[in-house]
Every structure is written in C-alpha cells, then in structure tokens.
## 1
Amino acid sequence: MKLPLLPESPASRTSRLGVPGALLLLFLLAGCTVGPDYVRPQAPTPATFNVPAGWKVAQAQDAQIPPDWWRLFKDAQLDQLEARVAPANQTLAQREAALRQARALVDSAQAGLFPTLSLNADKTRNRASAGAIGLAQGLVYDNYLTDVQASWEPDLWGAIRRGIESNVASLQASAGQLAATRLTLQTQLAADYFQLRADDTQRQLLADTVSADQRFLDLTQSRFDQGVAARTDILQAETQLRSVQAQLLDVGVQRSQLEHAIAVLVGEPASGFHLPNMPLDQAPPPVPLTVPSALLERRPDIASAERSAASASAQIGVAQAAFFPTVTIGGNLGYQNRAYNNLVSQPNSMWAFAPQIQLPLFDGGLRAAALDQARAGYDQAVANYREIVLEAIQNVEDNLAAASILSSELGVQQQAVQAADQTLRLTDDQYRQGTVGYLNVLTAQTVLLSNQLTEIALRSRQFVAHVQLVTALGGGWDPAQDPLTQTSPSTQLTSSAPSP
C-alpha cells in the first residue's frame, strides 16, 4: 500500500472523514503487512538412496516405521525401558519446559493485537500554595478520581502479526527439538541396551571358555603327572586360563557402565537399577526404507530447522515495520470530584480522547542495522536448514551401508568361527593322541576365541546400525499426529507460515 508523498495531518483527515471514517481507515491500514512472505527454502535432495542389494524402498501400501519403532526388534525388556524414557528423563523435562515457554511467547505476542483496558481509582490530598493566584491560596482539599483508561496501537504495517508468525514458528521449532531430543534419547537407550546384551553374550562365551580352559589345564596336569607332558605345557595352559578370566572380569566393568547409563536415561538412580543377563542371539529386523524427500517431513530435527528459518523470515517484517509511522489511540472515561459521596454523577463526568502518531526521523542507523541483522539471521537459518538436510541424508546413507556391509561381514565371520572350532577339535584330538604339542592347542584356542569375540562385536554393531538407521529415517515421527506441533485455532489464524 503506497502512502501519499505529502500526507494530510491526522487532525484535518479526522475532521474531513469523521471519527468513524478515521477508524475505518485505520482498520484498512491494519491489513498491510510488510516484509517477505515465507517460502520453504530449497535443499539439495537426491531422488533415492543408494539401496543395497536385498533392500527395497517401502511403497505407500507397505508397512512404515511405527512411532514406537523399538517394537520392530521384538524385545519385551526393551519395550518396557523405552516406555519409561518420555515420562522420566530429565533432559526431556527441560525441553518440555522450553516448549511451554514458547507457547507463552505466542500468547504474549497475540495480546498485542488487542487494546489494553485498566480500571483506576485514585485519591489525592492537596494543599495549594499560599502565594497561588486565585481563591485556593493555602487551601487543603481532597481529589477523588475513578476512570477506565484504554490504549490501542493498530497493527498498521503488520509488525505484531509478523511477530506472532515468528513466535508460532519458534513454537513449532521447539516442538521439533523436543521430538528430536526424545528420539535421540530413545536411540541411545536402544544402542546401550543391545551393547549390554552383547556384553552378556561375551560374558557367557568367556565363562564357557574358562570352563573349557580349566578342563585343558586339568588334562595337561594329568599328562604331566603321567610324564607325557612338559612343565611348560602346564604354564601355558594356566596362562591361557588366567587371561580369559581377566577378560571376563573386564567385560563386567563395561556392562556395569552401560547399565548405569540406561538407568539415567529412564530417570532412575544407578545404584538401585539392574537388568538381568540376556545374551544377544537373534537377528535384527528389516527396516522399512523411504525416499529421501520423505526426510523433510519425517525427521524432527529437519522440521525444527525449517521452522527456525520461518521464524527468522518473519523477523525481517518486524524490522521493516519500524521504518513506518506508528499510531496509538488512547483515552479515558470516568468521574472526578473533591468529595467522594457524589463522585459518580453527571456533573462530575470526564473523558479524554488522545490519538497520537509518531514517525521516527533519525536514530543513527539503528533501524537499518536491525533490518540487516534480521536478514543475516534468516540467511543463517536457511544455511543451517540445508546443512541439516545434507547431514540427514548422509546419516541415512552411512547407516544403510553399515547395516548392509555388517550383515555380509557377519556371515563371513560366522564361517571363520566354524572353521576355527573345527581346527580346535582336530588339534585337541591330535594332542590327546600325542601327535602335536600343547602349543598347537593353545594357538587353536586363541584363534577360536578371537573369532568368536569378533562375531559378537559384529552382531552388536549390526544391531546398533539398524537402530541408527531407523532413527535416521525419522523414527516413525509424524508431525501431523504429534500434538506438540499443533497450535491453537487463534494461533493458526494469525500465522501465515505453513506447517513443516
């Protein structure tokens, strides 16, 4: 909306249009909104992921990742632990408090659209100067006043509406941050849990190995007593046994630390928290893949970054509105008298109407600097959004490759374990028959144990890769079904920015 080069004064315009006409003009002006209308920034997004052989992208009719994505792993203990993260984790409690603050900021910004009203009652006791001119020289008197005061600043250029738009987008960004934090904590819990179960598998393996090594030590001692084994064979067998016992004890340290970390995630003191031993013996589930463009809708961190860009865009309009004049309409209506008993009466009535217009002329470049700051803030938010999109695609590709490669590597490693186990069995028979020395048995034992530990480590990494792939795809988060991303009807009416 263009303004005339030489605008009429408010007084002459009001006298020509009348008060109703002037108010109508203000309402028409209040429809103006300066600043850019937000458009979601473009981000580089490939058409598909590099899908490994044996994987396929889920179609519309296929099963999608559920919100409670950890149930894909079909582990009752994990289900119970994940259900305790949201209500008990203190990091989430902080994010929820930040979300409530963001909601309050939206309500505070919306209040600027309405006039302020206040009811006042006042009494003053006065003494006029003895040297005053008039009849009140030295007079002591009371003055009673009661009135209703009103003030309203019409949003002529949309500064308040842009501020509301910015706060609404910030609210949605905070909701996205809360969802992203919740997903991160759930991911950490699942990763720690499967690593703990891998430690249980390793402890079981080492305990079985200790039993086997003890039997070998007893056998070697018996052969030494019979004069068919050397003293060094006994020492080698004992060395192997003590080494495996030390490994068994060391695994207990890592398991305890993982157990304590899980306790913190579910909001419990570590001293009273304990999980039963459960070896990791199943395979991870298949993960439903989506196309890369779906990440823009299903990852809460991307949605949060996009909403932050929308908030920054609205701040440009707020800064631009500062270059235009502001109009404030104020007034009061009430009664004033020197006596209280007949205060509310027609002769004591009073009123005032005080419209005011203000146009800043010089501020040393303050408003221009604020506008440059808002534009730079928007550019920064857009760059952050694009970077998060790129990192999200990388995150999916990394874990997709890891899950596929680890699956193949695990198959090869299992074959290596089978070969090492057969080698140990044959070497053991040869040792019992006296055709080979104990060093051959010791070597075969070491090779088998090393390959078995590698298999457990690969299985653990495979589970963690599947967990991280699920969460890299958004973990089943759907902003349309998440009440935290929804706003009140009044907020939706005052926000022109689209939802993520």
Note: Residues 427 and 441 are 6 Å apart (CA to CA).
## 2
Amino acid sequence: MNYHFGRRLAVLLVFAGILLSLDAAYAQQKPSFKVIAFFTGKNDQAHISFVHEANKRLPELGKKNGFSYDSTTNWDNLNAEFLSKYQVVLFLDTRPEKPEQRAAFQKYMENGGGWIGFHFAAFALTPSAFPQNWDWYHDQFLGSGQYKSNTWRPTSAVLKIEAPQSPVFKGLKNTFKASPNEWYRWEKDLKQNPDIQILLSIDPSSFPLGTGPKQHEIWHSGYYPVAWTNKKYKMLYMNMGHNDIDYENKTNKELSFTFDNDAQNQFLVNSILWLANRKK
C-alpha cells in the first residue's frame, strides 16, 4: 500500500470515529420524552419566585436527564390534542378552573398520562370560602382534601423516605434536608387511604418546625406527609414550591431557592423519569 494513501486512510478512519462518537453522544442527549408545565404566576411572591426558578432550572435538568421542558400560562392548553404531545404534566403553582380544562386533565390522567404537582397546586378551602372546589382532584386524585394549616416562616426540614424501594429515591439516603419551605397540613389522613403511597414525611428531628411568630405556625410533633402518589394514576404530589421572601421588611427579596438542593433535585428528576417510563 502507498504510504501516503495509507496515511490518508488512517486520518479518514480517525475522523469517521470522531463523527460516530459525536453521533452517539447526540443520541444520548436527544430528549426521549416531553414535559409541559402549567402555571399562573400571580399568587403570592413566594410562589412566583418558585415558578421563575423552575422555568430556569428544569430545562437545565432536562438536558442532563433526557427530557425536554416547555411551560405555559395558557390553561386552555389542557385539551386532548395539546396534551397528547407530552408524557408528563406539571402544575407549578395553581390548577385549572374551567370545567372543560378539568375534564381534559382528568381524562389525560385516566388514560395513563403523568403528573407532578407542587405546593400550592393542592391548595383548597371549604366550598363557602373557595366555591370553585374540584372534588375529584382534591378528594380522590390527591386524597388530601382541603388545606388545614401551615408552618411559618419558611424553614428547612429533614425529610424521611417512607418507600425506600421506590425508584424515585435512587441515589438518596434514608433522610435528606429539604430547601426552606412553607409546609402544609391536610384535612384527610393519607395513611388511611389504601390508594395512597406516602413517599416522604417530616422526620421528627425537624421539630420544632417553623419560627412563628404565631404559635400554631410552629409544629412540635405529629406525622406530616409531604410527598405521595396515588397508585391508581401516574402521579406524584410534593409539598415543595414556596421560596422564603423578605416580607417583613417589605423588600420582597428572595431569601432561599428551592432548586439549590442536590438531593431534592435528584428526587424530582427521579420522579419525572419514573412517571414518564412506568406503566399505568
């Protein structure tokens, strides 16, 4: 073989190898499924801060973990045609209000769609104070009923893993410390619901939880689920989603960020991957 020809052939083979490596890397990074987040972004500065943070950080997490991320404030996109493009739906702060939006979401979930709701997405009060209640969503789907109380001010908590064999806890220890958050208590006892699997609860080492100034805003004992799934659906609710804000000095300065927490982010990413890939 001619020396120069052999050298050119070697260079071409090296170049071809580089191209194949790049193609393989691209294939690994190409999104395997799509996530869509719905939000309102108008209810409380702490929730707005979380929404802005989520819309910045979730695309980054998606690129690293094989999913694409879109977001919208148009709740009319809760329709069969639009939702058919996505494998996982997120409610970042609120929930749909129109009957046709609610019906489309319920059908999406009953047909095997995936969903994660954060913090305020589960909020509901009694019908007299909150006349647009959604019984299927709060009582059957979430299983929590209405909101009863919360801690204040937003503080970190140690969270206990209640279902260590679940894939949502891959790479995590039995407990981890959450970002500062306003923690909710619910009307219904989720432990008594056979359809509900509690995933995370407040670890007793967190007590007292909250700083007040009102005494009922400080929890000293008790059992408080903060993340769970309804086994009839591909869904997961997590209480996180309320950043700490400087309300006292009226600066509205952000004092904490939900996504500044590697363990909590791992739980979220694991949850998205689990919902996108598991069967109904």
Note: The longest strand covers residues 196-202.
## 3
Amino acid sequence: MTQLFALLASYLLIPILIRRKVKLSHTLLITAVCLGVLSGIGIDSLKEIFTGLWTNPSSLNTILVVAMVSILGGLMNHYGLLGRIVASLQAITQSKKISMVAIPALIGVLIIPGGAMLSAPFVDSIGQEVGMKPARRAAVNLVFRHLAMFLMPYSTSLLVVGAALPQIDIYKMISLNLAMVVSMLAIGNYLLMRDVPGKKATPGDGRQARLFKLVPELLLYSSPIYICVLINLIFGWPFSLAMVASLGAVFLLSDKRDFLKVCIKSFNGNVVLIVAVVLIMKDIILNMEGLMALLRSLFSLGNGTVTAVAVIFLTSLLIGYATGYSVAALAVTLPMISELGASLPMLHVFAYFAFGSSFVGYFFSPLHLCQAFTLQIMGVTTSELYREYKRYAPLLLIALLTSGILMIAIASRL
C-alpha cells in the first residue's frame, strides 16, 4: 500500500509542474527521481534500471528509433515530402475530412514509438485549412493513429498477447478488436469530425487517369514511411536498423542540399529524453514488488466471470495509465489470465478486455508518448487536450464494457 501511495504522490507532480510551464521532459525527469526515491526498491535496483536502459536491446532500440523518427520527420518536412504526400492523398480522396482520418491511420501502421511525430504535421496542416482549433487537431491525430495497433498482427501489443497466451488465435483476437476499432471510428467521427466539411469534387471523365498517376506518386513519396516496416517484416531487422533505409529513401527523393546539416538540425534531444525517462519510470513501477503484489492479490479474488473481468479491467487500466505503456499492463495481466482455467472462447474475451483496458489506460495517460509528441508539435497543453476528451473517454469506456459483456454472453454459450 505504501508503494501505491508513492506512485500516486509522484504522479501528482505532473499536472502541477506542467501548469507551471515546466518542459514535459523535465517534468517527467523530476517525477522519475521522486518515484525512484519513494518507491523503496533500493539504490542497486535503480542503478540496474538505469544501466539496463542502455544495455537492454529493446530499450536501446526504442530510443534509437525515436531519435531517427525525429530526424526522418524533419527531413521529410524540410524537403517537402510531407506536403507532396498530403497533396496526393487529398487529390485521391478529394476530401479534407477523409484525409484527416486516413493520414494518421495510415502512418499508425508503422507501429513504432514516435510515429505521432510523422502524422501530427499532416493533421495540423489540414486542420488549420478547415479552421479546426489546435486541441481538436491534436485529439484527431491521437484517436485515429491508434487504430492499427488493434488490427496489425505484428503490433507490439498483439505480439505480447500471442507470446503470453499461445492458445489464442491472433486473427480471432483481431476480429474481436474490430469492436473497438469501429467504436473509435464512430465516436471520433461524431465528436471530433462532424463540423469538418466533407465536400468532394465531382469526378470527371479523367478520374481514372488521374488515379493512375496519383497512386504511384503517393507510394513513392510515402516510401520513407513504410519501407522500414517492409524491411522489418521481410528480414526481421530491428527498426533502428531498418530506419536507415527510410533515411536513405529521403536522401534519394530530396535535392540532397545540406542533407547532413538538416539531419543534425532535425534531431530532437528533448523528445529522446522523454522516451528515456518514460522507460525508466516503467521499469521502476514494474520493480515495485509491493505494488505488483497488491495487484496480484486483487486478481486472485476473482472467483467468477464478473469478478475476474472487473479485476482484469481495473488492473490493466491502472498499469496502462501509470506507465503510459500498454505492454506493461499486458505483461502483468495476461500471465494471470492464463491461470484462470477459462474455456478457449472465454479466454479470448478475457484477453480482449485486458487489451482494451490497457489501451484505454495508456491512451489517456499523461506519459503516453504519442500524446507528448503531438502536444509538443501542435503547441497544446494537456488540460486543453483532455477537455476534448471529456465525452470521448466515457463513450469509449462504455463501448469497451458493452462489447465485452456481449462477448461474454456469447462465449458462455459456446
């Protein structure tokens, strides 16, 4: 219980410091120091966590990828590739409304830390054209860019589900996740996009010819975004290595003038610090054995489907919110789910609840990296963004609980 209070006390610093205009990276650094001191895990564990940040391949890869994505975004913006992608996509869709949804959703397929830095400039630019206020533009970028993590079988969260629960059929899991995807699209469109004009140009006789030209153009200029994904999928290279090909693609598509200088200028040290601190905080929390034991004891109280779902929901939500990292929540709850002895259909539903709950906690967490990057790019405060979420958040929770209850009713009959 003491560690729970230590966690809450440390996290209370975040809104206080942000309101005092302290940089987000510095705010998180101060919070991490306080959490480390109050956690009671000991100086040796703290040293191990800090050392592991630079020796653990996964953590190091994450930091390198974020650094390279910041450079990639700067390069694509400097050499006009972002503008060409936006122009091509808008010419294909002929609708700014569709473009504002499609662009972050498309870039979200990257499934890499820092991807919001690529989609945010697109949404920001189109949003300004339609007169959308900055806080809503930030919400649009965040809501629609996270659709892919529910659908892509190689998303980190789905890979964790497959590893922890090998009996789960990932494609069946994806089919269940469609309930959340449809809900996010419907609620997001109604609350955030309903005032955006959806006017389309009248198709002319030459539309097919224009598409024949525009689609290859879109694929060419967006290649720096997806080429790293293809390399990772085909060859299994880590993204930090695959990103070199993306930078090389920008080099080939650019005029190459001052390329190295632009790379250096595009590097965002503040963003890299944010990532490093969040990873440290995540590991501190996962090393707080008292807190983890408290959560496990709550889970062990589940002697029925309703109680089990309630514990899964609250545990996943809390850890996802506390760490700003949905995988941290899944790493705790999924092994526990495997010990419940549930039927295979019910096991899929429990996994769906854990997946959705951890996502909701992570999505609305002040440590959410995509949120941090989007706020920084669009010049929006956390409180301004959360005001945009005042109806979206409860409706999303209702959608998760309603869909889950229906799935339980169906699974219990199988």
Note: The mean pLDDT is 83.
